[in-house]
Amino acid sequence: MKGLLVLCLGLLALADANRSPLQQRALELVLDFFHSRDLVQATFKEQAVTHVTETEFPRGTYVQLEVDLVQTFCRKQQRGTQNCRIKPGGRKQKCLACFKFNSSDPQNILDESKRCLSEQNPIFQEVRRKQNQECEAVKEAGAQKSDGIHIYWAVLQPSRKQGTLFLLETSRTSPSLGLGATGMEPLLVPEESSVFQA
Fold first, then answer.
1. Is 112 within a domain?
2. Do the domain assignments include residue 195?
3. Which of 100, 115, 190, 195 has the fewest C-beta atoms lying within 10 Å of its C-beta?
């Protein structure tokens, strides 16, 4: 058992070493976003980055990734503790995200979109489709002149049943969509489903 754990840790370390600085930053932004939600009470660990692409454009670098998260025994306030063990049978979440980083200043994010929910959620494929559509707009960020105004917002609404929540998603507006546009529609999670109940 210990040998298997060492092997898994070694593979994770190898994966970390193969990531570019922007890919690593994108992953950290996703984790920060996920744990910033009030509904998330436990620490979740990155189980795997199942997809990642990085594309350079004249005005910025586009990074898209999908991350599998798994619940640990630690509370959210203990995040960063090295000994947070994965909770057997704990909740799992998949985060879909994309970012456009400014070429001249990588700390400046031109546009972004992030969504997290369970793959078992019946609307997961619809969410993925919406995410891919929005990421196409994120990819084009900075391609046209902008007045520099962006709006960053989140959709998080409780349903009638306590503990059951609607899909959580955030986005910045793309300049091409106009001030106040989001390029996305809130998606409702059926009441028998659950998102971010950790």
1. yes
2. no
3. 190
CA distance 198 to 196: 5
Calpha distance 8→79 (Å, rounded): 20
SS3 per residue for 65-120: EEEEEEEEEEEHHHCCCCCCCECCCCCEEEEEEEEEEECCCCCCEEEEEEEEECCC
Q: How far is the CA of 51 from the CAs of 64, 103, 134, in angstroms?
A: 8, 23, 17
Tell if the pTM clears 0.85, that is, is over it.
no
Encoded tokens for 31: 């984790």
Residue 155, both tokens? 């959709």
Tally of domains within the chain: 1
For the four alpha carbons of 138, 140, 142 and 146, in that order, the dihedral sign comes to negative
> In angstroms, rounded to a whole number, what is the distance separating the alpha carbons of residues 157 and 160?
10
Q: Which domain holds residue 136?
A: 16-177
SS3 for 36? coil
DSSP state of 174: P
In a domain, 78, yes or no: yes
Assigned domain for 57 exists: yes
Question: Residue 189: what residue type?
Answer: V
CATH number for 38: 3.10.450.10
78-132 pLDDT, tens digit per residue, is 998 778 999 999 999 999 999 999 988 888 999 999 999 999 999 999 999 999 9
